[in-house]
Amino acid sequence: MDKLEDFIRKNRSDFDFREPSPWLWKGIRAQIGNRRRSILWWSAAASVIVLLGISALFLFPGTGRGKVLKREEIIMNRNPQLMETEFYYNNLVNTLSNEAKPLLVRYPELRKELNSDMARIDSLCAEIKKDLRDNVSNQQVIEALINNYRIKTEILQEMLEMLKQKQNSQEKSKSHEI
């Protein structure tokens, strides 16, 4: 044990006979109250900052995507023809897909095969875009991307034409039935 501790234990009764004055206790209570208020204010400020940060993430979700998205945007902005082409083909694919959906209800295996083909082409497009990020000015990469979009639309157009012919032949056979 420490010498100070021994001394305090032996002489404890000598220390306990005096009590602090009431004005000293008031000062101590005031300091404790001020600390509690400051802790409360700091806690409230920290909560507000956390809430603002979370709100910013939800309001501006694009800021957390990192360099890949920014680099892709830069590539598209440098080549407006590519951006316009991609917009055109995406709209065309969406239009053809929406037109084919009601016809594909009768043919779930065909729909599954089409979705598989479209997913494969989408993964190829993603790989080509990755190459495009690596080499912005490579015309062959841009042509390969456009060619994949063309293939995608051709598959959709041929499938849609086939479905329409099938539907027409079924309607004709129903109209010829007695």
Question: Which short descriptors sum up this protein?
Answer:
178 residues, 86% helix, mainly alpha, elongated, 2 domains, 7 helices
Report on the biggest sheet: none
Number of strands: 0
* Quaternary structure: single chain
Strand content: under 5%
What low-confidence regions span 5 or more consecutive residues with pLDDT below 50?
A: 65-69
Look at the structure and give the mean pLDDT.
77
H/E element sequence: HHHHHHH
Compute the number of structural domains: 2
3D structure, described in words:
With 178 residues, the chain is mainly alpha-helical. The chain folds into two domains: 10-59; 66-176, no CATH class. It has seven helices and no strands. Helix 5 (80-104) packs parallel to helix 7 (139-176) and helix 6 (108-134) packs antiparallel against helix 7. The chain is elongated and about 115 Å long. 3% of the residues are buried. Mean pLDDT is 77; it is low at 65-69.
Brief synopsis:
The protein has helices at 3-10, 12-16, 22-59, 67-78, 80-104, 108-134, 139-176. It has 178 residues and is mainly alpha-helical.
Reconstruct the topology from this structure.
Elements: H1 3-10, H2 12-16, H3 22-59, H4 67-78, H5 80-104, H6 108-134, H7 139-176
Helix pairs in contact: 5-7, 6-7
